[in-house]
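Extended Data, panel c. Modelled sequence:
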Amino acid sequence: MGNFLCTIEKCRSERQRGALVRRTRWARRALVPVAAVVVIATLAAGCGSSSKKGAASAATSSTTASTSAPKTSRGFDGSTITVAGLGIKSQLPGVEYGAEARIKRFNDTRELPGVTIDYTEYADDKGDPAFALSEARRLVSQTKVFALVGDSSAVNPGDYFAQNHVPYFGSGYDNTFCSDDPVTTLWGFGYLGCIVASHPKQLSDTYREFSALVKEKTGKAEPTVAEFSSDTASGRNSAKFAAIQLKGRGFKVVYAKASVPPPPVPDFTPYVQQLVTSDGGHAPDAVVCLLAIDCLSMYKGLRAAGYPGFFFTSLYSDALLGALKGSYVNVSFQPFDQPNAGLTQMRADMTLVKPDYTIDIGVVGGYFAADMFIAALKLAAKSGGISPENVQAKAARMTWEIKGFVGPTIYPEATTHSHGCNALTYDDGTVFKTVEPFSCSDTTWPVTG
């Protein structure tokens, strides 16, 4: 999923006709009775490692949350915290529902006695930096949001958020979630950590499962691979970095280009032809798509052209099963065919918000972002009080995970690269079947040149 997330950042949302703002208000305006709370999404360093660094240890244990005398701040009146989402609404509408589902459970079960969260809207940035800044200003100056929760924007105005002390939690689709070295000064927190660094020093081990599969199926020690991204500045970075990761896992990279223009693309034929002849006039053993939804069109074109090889994306959604039949999908959390308590809880939470909505990568991103925000909020309430500044300070040093489902993401190390936890699934046309189970790797690939 890491590379898909990198490339959503390049896929610009289509201009939508009209503005649709869905407002959901569960927040209770009166103080609720004090009650003990068990933190369901525990935040501990996983994959066989131990908890790290003071704040992380506090985040990982189940606690009874309590608050001292409430202090008000922007977006917090002493009892209600106002938040909103921002991002690629036309491509990832499910972000809203995932965030709402986790927040609803927070409110309904009184996870922080006397405090509720009001999720006001999921604002569409239209994939436009200027429009994203305008919406950010509106949310901060007019709506008075405490934080952004469920941020799927690829064009975040990171400087504006930092200047105005607005923490934002999301999928990490732009480089405002990243730094060259581990720091505690960022205001953006991704549930996968940094995945779109401009100048990374190291890259996570994304392709280990896919490499093992292709080598086994082809019998080649160095199978060929073609990978492609969108023709944007960040797309060119994505293609460059993926080539390093693929080479690190033993592939012979025969094509690594940001060849496909941002959507809408009128005709994919020229880009398909480049791929099917990329291995010295022949088709490569494997193709890796670093686009978002346009991977569907490229896959359809490749199959129509008779491409017989392996196709890899991060488009993990039951709604795409038929369209991606025969492909392999990278997943950065425990796949849905591998039951666990975290997945069961997410499904239950979703039934109370949008029971008819297929859980997809958008829902997962919104849900994880909300859970991450809630974890930082609880740490702030326990020590130092609830304020945007204290939530940022706690998030900047915490370890976040939903045990057995996703993570761990360890800050501040996560400001430099993603967590390196993945699974590989196969789309048989009706279900995704796990080929390689979810696991984490400490291996990283250095970036030189």
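The first helix runs from residue 2 to 8. This feature is highlighted in the accompanying rendering.
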